[in-house]
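Bumping with the actual sequence this time:
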Amino acid sequence: MIEGKFYNQSAPGLLGVKGLYFLLGNTGSLATLTVRWNPKRPCLSDHPTPPYDIVNHTLRLQGAEMTNNKIALDQTLADRFTSLLGTIRKNIVELATTAATVRNQYLSANGKSYEPEFHKFWKTYSMENKFGSLSTFAKYAGIGDAIEKVRARYEKYQIQLPTTMTALYEFSQLEDYELALCLEDHWVRTEITPDREKWKRKGRKPVPVINPSATAAAIRTWRTHWRNPKQPPTDKRRITLAEIKVHGALFDFKNGQHSDLISKEQVMEIAEGLRKLMERFDGSIVRLDLRDEKLKAAYDKKEAAAVAKATKAAEVAK
């Protein structure tokens, strides 16, 4: 309902339909309009400018009140944001956990491919148009597995989970013990070692790496520094004993698909094996430096570019 309130009672006849259309066309759906008669303005029926000044108007937009062209900062708006954020979080969690269940049920015994019936489903229902690629589907599934892990082992920390898809993906890349550390506080170290005496808390008060406002970049940075710590200038373990290199096929993609000669997962597995191997030796005389996180980041970047290129080529072909 639109109300017209006037200071000069001779003005109501001048508040015509065209004037209202002019206002509505610029402001949206008005609930309340207050105007003041302006004798300096011409009163022409076809004139685009109404012969009055707007004193105040109140609008409602998607449940939030807007006053003087601004959305009111009130409880209605706060409730709206809470509802939307809750819906986003709920949908991401449900999508991820469902994807994890499906992947775990239809992944082949070798853990590298899906069963034929899954591929049939994927093609029949054009799931690539929804997820973009199987690798994206796998990322959602990985997030789902990590969420279920927190529910099962660290139930009291569920409220700390990040709210964005990208942050949840980085969270899903953490090892079990890393996950526990990140839920507890922000830990740092200057060398790869299982010796907790050499692990330090970053601050005096706990500031968990995993929290609702955690960004993907923050989690990724922590993981990189934790797994590939920089060697301090005072560290005397500097004589190179060995080098390990992997095949260049790690970065080979064709039509958006990886070559599979050596996968990202294999590289991470090798790195983890090296970490465990070094636990047998005296950490005071030998140091292990890895680049697995840098390789992983480079792989993800190349994969995203390859998928985007393949998707664009498919669209052009249509």
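The tokens above came from a reply further down the thread. The two ends are 49 Å apart (CA to CA).
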